[in-house]
Amino acid sequence: MARLGIVRDDLAVFGMGDAAARAERLRYRIAPLLDSIAIPFVPALSALAGRPLSLRPCGSTADTCAAVRFVPPDGEQESAHLLLALNRSGVHARLRVPSGCPHREACARRLARCTQALARELGGADLRRYDDGSCASLPAPGAPAEPSFWRELAEDLATASGALDVGTAWPEARAVMLCRADLVAAFRPLASLWKRLEG
Fold first, then answer.
1. Is 95 exposed, middle or buried, given 0-12, 13-18 or 19+ CB atoms closer than 10 A?
2. What is the pLDDT of residues 76-91, one digit of tens each?
3. Residues of the chain with pLDDT > 70: what percent?
4. Which of 98, 124, 135, 155 is most buried when burial is the number of CB atoms within 10 A of its CB?
């Protein structure tokens, strides 16, 4: 199967010391590359999520990360969403429920009610917690086979400033080998979790 087209030099862009050269590469190489991966992937991701999704840019964060969001067409800025990101540490497929999500408290209650079921259903997934909300470095692998993993996520999401940010990460050596099937496999458990959170 054809690879996504990511090469080591793409990820190295985020570590360039020359800010002007980095900005130029982000605009003319990274943004089109991300679009070329994400746009054809929308139908497959919509099928996984069980609803139509549209693609929205996230832009870059201090030129350290480039990302796109997959959201329902009527989704608000702070709505839960799936995310595909590139940065110096690799490629990241994530599910995010921002602290400003209007349904955050309901999502936390639903998550708290299904910790055992999620441990059974998604225990084999390679999931990590992005606790700082960024992808500046590779988070340590989580333990989704343990109900405590999900319980802690629910407890954090329920706090006043809580959020949920989990996903799969591929470091540089694996990122350059990725193909479409890898993205499908990574987003499948995230889409399943999203459906549970939103009832």
1. buried
2. 778 899 999 999 999 9
3. 95
4. 135
Strand 54-60 with 81-87, pairing: unpaired
60 vs 77: CA distance, rounded Å: 16
The Cβ-side half-sphere exposure at 138, using a 13 Å CA radius, reads: 16
Task: Report how far residue 10's alpha carbon sits from residue 103's, in angstroms, rounded to the nearest whole number.
Answer: 36
**pLDDT tens digits, 173-184:** 999 999 999 999
What's the confidence (pLDDT) of residue 62?
A: 59
Q: CA–CA distance from 111 to each of 22, 53, 101, 187, 197 (Å)?
A: 40, 22, 15, 18, 6
CA-closest candidate to residue 101, choices 144, 46, 31, 160: 160
Question: pLDDT tens digits, residue range 42-70?
Answer: 999 999 999 999 999 885 455 788 999 99
Which architecture characterizes domain 8-197 according to CATH? 2-Layer Sandwich (3.30)
Crossing angle of helices 147-158 and 104-113, rounded to 10°? 160
Q: In whole angstroms, what separates CA 80 from the centre of its chain?
A: 11
The domain segmentation of the chain, as residue ranges, is 8-197
